[in-house]
Write a structure and sequence with these properties.
This protein has 422 residues and is α/β, with parallel strands linked by helices. Helix content is 32%, strand content 24%. The strands form six sheets. The protein has a four-stranded mixed beta sheet with strand order 22-23-1-24, covered by helices on one side. The chain has a four-stranded mixed beta sheet with strand order 2-15-17-16, with helices on one face. The chain has a four-stranded mixed beta sheet with strand order 4-5-3-14. The structure holds uridine-diphosphate-N-acetylglucosamine.
Length: 422
């Protein structure tokens, strides 16, 4: 059986501009939120990635339809009367459990296959369950499926999250928008994707205030009053950060267009601390570098802290810095597989528990490598451009989950790279 691989060859520099697409982590939840609109919602700026295909299959498995026209998705949930999400889909993509909240909001019950662990950690769902229980949802774990019901109806509640979980905040938001009374999520996740979801819900007739701050207030409205809407997905700050890391490594100047720089404040600060020049406009960021990369410690934290989804890309920068920076991963316990793979290309990274001690090296060598996960895979491709010789990157399905036309965009910046079947 043939396999697709990426061949990245030593490239002198990456320069020019690249347009950033819609955010994977937002679009997935926007598609799920369309369940509440009970009609055909139109979502613009939806990236062509396999995770979105899986979420479209989730909607279809419920009886809805999803049609793509370029970057636009028409999600029609008029006949989405099913309430069960099968194991085949949840096992392919954990974010499938984002339908739990909207299904509970629309039907009062749901049956969702329990997500297992995944290769970046255990990824529990206890917080999802806790917040939904607070509004009256009862859960039974039944042969690998989680059956959610609300025999006594749903009621508003004030919840305080132990940790600002993105997924738990989103599920609570999507379930409680149709629950009578005022609900409050305190210590809520503050990611731009949460703001995007709240904006779409409000465009459907919901009343959500405070998204983007630690306290979100939801005034419940009747389900029947909600309607489908038209919404444009926010830009992908992680895709932008990935290209900026590539520009910082190679020298640039490299510009990412169509992204609000405030989404990436911490990452931009780290780039500056590493010796890069960073210039911003309202919707673009340009990075360039002429001096050696300086070592900078990084610790991942919930937004607006440094994003875990950029940890691998910045670990690569640290791996070629002149010193010994330490990276601390606080969000996912098992997210350093990338470092082991990069060490095969000549980096010198020691992982101890949730810390990576990175001894900077002057050069990397091309090698056959496998994508350990989505972001690690994207970082290995960039490493291949900076390395001597040729790097063959396998297991591309990880990259395809979250990057739309990654190779084409890198080629447009001057990368010596191709994707082919072997
Ligand atoms: C989302 C993003 C992911 C990003 C992450 C953190 C999507 C599809 N994925 O994932 O790319 O890396 O936010 O920014 O949007 N946790 C619990 N119990 C829970 C929920 C979470 O212990 O009920 C833990 C997780 O195991 C993890 C941490 O909290 O260690 C962060 O999880 P969370 O913020 O919920 O991330 P996701 O929504 O899964």
């Amino acid at each position: 059986m043939s396999e697709e691989i990426i061949i990245a060859r030593e490239t002198e520099n990456l320069t020019g501009s690249v347009r950033i697409g819609g955010a994977k982590n937002s679009a997935l939840k926007l598609v799920a939120a369309a369940i509440l609109g009970q009609g055909a919602s139109t979502l613009h700026n939806v990236p062509r990635i396999s995770d979105i295909d899986i979420m479209a299959d989730v909607i279809r498995s419920l009886g809805g339809t999803v049609e793509r026209q370029g970057e636009t998705l028409i999600v029609d949930t008029t006949n989405a009367t099913g309430y069960e999400t099968p194991y085949e889909l949840v096992s392919k993509m954990r974010a499938s459990i984002s339908v739990l909240g909207p299904l509970i909001g629309r039907f009062g019950h749901a049956r969702v296959a329990m997500p297992g662990g995944c290769n970046i950690g255990a990824r529990k769902i206890d917080l999802h369950l806790k917040v939904l229980q607070s509004i009256g949802v009862q859960f039974v774990n039944d042969h690998g499926y989680l059956y959610a019901s609300s025999p006594n109806g749903l009621h508003s509640a004030e919840v305080y999250l132990d940790f600002p979980s993105v997924g738990a905040t989103e599920n609570m938001l999507m379930a409680s928008v149709v629950v009578e009374g005022t609900s409050v999520i305190d210590n809520a996740a503050r990611e731009p994707e949460i703001v995007d979801l709240a904006n779409m819900l409000n465009a459907m007739g919901c009343k959500v205030e405070g998204a983007g701050s630690p306290t979100i207030t939801i005034t419940g409205v009747p389900l029947e009053s909600l309607h489908p809407c038209e919404h444009t997905t926010v830009a992908d700050r992680i895709e932008a950060g990935t290209f900026l890391a590539a520009g910082a490594l190679m020298g640039g100047p490299l510009t990412v267009e169509g992204i609000d720089p405030s989404f990436l404040r911490m990452a931009l600060m780290k780039l500056t601390d590493m010796g890069c020049s960073v210039e911003t406009t309202e919707d673009s960021i340009t990075v360039s570098r002429t001096e050696p990369l300086r070592p900078v410690d990084i610790q991942t934290l919930p937004h607006p802290g440094f994003p875990t989804d950029l940890q691998a890309q910045f670990c690569l920068l640290c791996a070629m810095a002149d010193g010994t920076p330490v990276i601390t991963e606080n969000i996912f316990e098992n997210r350093f597989m990338f470092a082991y793979e990069l060490n095969r290309m000549g980096s010198d990274i020691t992982v101890e528990d949730h810390h990576a001690i990175v001894h900077g090296v002057k050069s990397l060598q091309g090698a056959p490598v496998s994508c350990p996960d989505l972001r690690g895979g994207a970082a290995l491709v960039i490493a291949g451009l900076a390395a001597e010789g040729e790097t063959r990157i396998h297991d591309l399905h990880h990259i395809d989950r979250g990057y739309d036309n990654y190779v084409g965009k890198l080629q447009s910046l001057g990368a010596n790279i191709e994707r082919l079947s072997i």
